[in-house]
Amino acid sequence: NAGVTQTPKFRVLKTGQSMTLLCAQDMNHEYMYWYRQDPGMGLRLIHYSVGEGTTAKGEVPDGYNVSRLKKQNFLLGLESAAPSQTSVYFCASTHPSRLATDTQYFGPGTRLTVL
Amino acid sequence: AQTVTQSQPEMSVQEAETVTLSCTYDTSESDYYLFWYKQPPSRQMILVIRQEAYKQQNATENRFSVNFQKAAKSFSLKISDSQLGDAAMYFCAYNAGAQKLVFGQGTRLTINP
Asked: In this complex, do A56 and B98 lie within 8 Å of one another by their Cβ atoms?
């Protein structure tokens, strides 16, 4: 049971390049999330998904796209990377619950640098 | 929109002593959940403790406890008998529906031996 894994762990991009971050979970969770963490700030929600085939915008969605084609995977795409997207990206997953009693399980993070 | 504020960017405490980290939040909801997460240098986000807003009793997990003041919208974390392994960034978080978390800015906790 690996929990939540993220690929890659580190990446350096040039401005304008594209890339996809992969999040995978083996806990059969319905809900998945992508957050970014910038220095001096907490995590901010980019996009999330409440089930296979569904996605929704979070607090800071601009410049990102996501897809949830399989229940266990949640992909985060950057079509044209910008220096402002330099950050650490975290994926998380959890079970649905009426009052959110369940813990969000986080991946180890991906450090992305855009030059 | 819900917001979470941690007013202490940094805190330090002597090993074996007690420290309290502050958190305030803003919401118009009556049912919600609050969390404290720990982030060590490894960057892994680790759940420390959670509190259900409808429960009056403060949550406790071993050396970690909270002081939840619903009317004041305050949710502080107390760490007793501080240990070197407690050194980390601590984030307060609020559940904003669909289990989306809204995080505070974090407090960096240093433990002095």
From this structure: yes
